[in-house]
Amino acid sequence: MLDELEAELGPDPDPRDRELRTLVQSTLLISGSDEKATIHTVRERFARIPEPAGDTPAQRQMLAMMTVLSAMEGRSVRRAVGQARRALSSADRLDNWSLLFSAFTLGLADEIEEAMEALEHALRHGQDNAAVWSYVITLSYRALLLHGVGAIPDALADAQTAVEIIGEERWSANVTMPQTALATILIDRGEPERAEELLAAVTRPNLDGFVMEYHSYLMARARARWALGDSATALRLLLDCGASLEESGFANPVFLPWWTEAACLLAAEKRADEARDLVEHGAELARRWSTPRAFGLAALARGVTTPGEDGIARLTEAVEHFSGSPARSEHARAEYLLGGALLDAGRPREARERLRSAVDLAQGSGALALARDARNRLVAAGGRRREITASPVDLLTGTERKVAQMASRGAGNREIAESLFVTVRTVETHLTSVYRKLSVSQRGELASVLNGPSLPDPQAPAWVFASRGRR
């Protein structure tokens, strides 16, 4: 199709035809970049296309597509981020997929604020156009991005909403990202059984032929099996994920770091020697991408598989890298593993310091499973800490909790604002977040949810219900 179009337009098309050609090229890139059967052809084809300046809508869409290929390649974070930023130079005029793909790359580069802004644009675009399917996919990706930066309560709210929406859609069997996102979050919340149920219900036809969905699904299944004590199946799934990613040409170390998970699993099984090749593989990928998170993952994998003081040094290095990144949950895990290594080395005082940090980071991130493990290890090291419990209030930030509690007792927005020395607009923003996290629609429901043992079922946005009535 593209060859025919180029032949018809000739070697020097006028500006309008050139814009049409760029639009067709980027559309083909969208359709071919997520399927394993076509990804290599797409990559080879577009390697021959000059990178556009980004001066027109079609050029910006092309840049958004190209940035995904750059992120997949994992060789130049600077180039990938530059493409994404140029693509987003007029974000209000981009389509949903261009926004989503640019956000995907920025997320892998840990440019989280810019990624979140692009996703907000994409969600508004989906809502304004009643595009429920793209809205759900964007919401699911935002959940995974939030999970990756240790904002698990916010991630949980997004993922639950996405799963709630697809439950009433005719095309629900053709999506996996909402279920995968929610399962990923539930594992860290200490609910691997629920995660398994979600993943077992996935019926996507030809799932193993897709680049993004299949590997995210494999990773979630592997983590669920490991959390349930089935390390053999977990390791097999992780290795399958790695082999399939390599087949797809996906070499970004931050996207589904299966090699770090496999190294940690093998170390926990006292089989660290088997992880040597995985560790070297990950270190090379991290060297290419060169972000603090990537270096932290590489140091973590090397640290857990290296005995003695050298292993402690590598885990200390991992903590330092993660502390310079937005990866709070990974930071918590590194602190936990370092604390365990110090305890095993007969250094309980240093171990307690690291384990306290792990508990604080994990609990603050909403990673309750890790927080409980770190707390138990801290107690074993002679420290003290209250039991880690889950409640609806855990989903809220400190300010959101104060606002919710005052609102539940009948205080108005102005009264809350004056009490907390913030604007009424800020209070309204906090309440909107509270309603979303707690799955309520009005302040009159807050008291029962805050004082109750569990959360109500999540609710789809009102515009989704309205769009169903028009279909």
TrEMBL record:
Supply the PROSITE patterns for this chain: HTH_LUXR_1, HTH_LUXR_2
Read off the Pfam families from this record. Answer: GerE
Q: Which InterPro entries match?
A: Sig_transdc_resp-reg_C-effctor, TPR-like_helical_dom_sf, Tscrpt_reg_LuxR_C, WalR-like, WH-like_DNA-bd_sf
Q: Which Gene3D superfamilies match?
A: Tetratricopeptide repeat domain, Winged helix-like DNA-binding domain superfamily/Winged helix DNA-binding domain
Q: Which GO BP terms, alphabetically? A: regulation of DNA-templated transcription
Q: Does the keyword Heme apply?
A: no
The keyword DNA-binding is assigned to this record: yes
Domain HTH luxR-type as annotated: residue spans: 389-454
GO MF terms here are: DNA binding
Q: Which UniProt keywords apply?
A: DNA-binding
**PANTHER family registered for this protein in UniProt:** TRANSCRIPTIONAL REGULATORY PROTEIN DESR (PTHR43214:SF42), TWO-COMPONENT RESPONSE REGULATOR (PTHR43214)
Q: What is this protein called?
A: HTH luxR-type domain-containing protein
Species name: Streptomyces violaceusniger
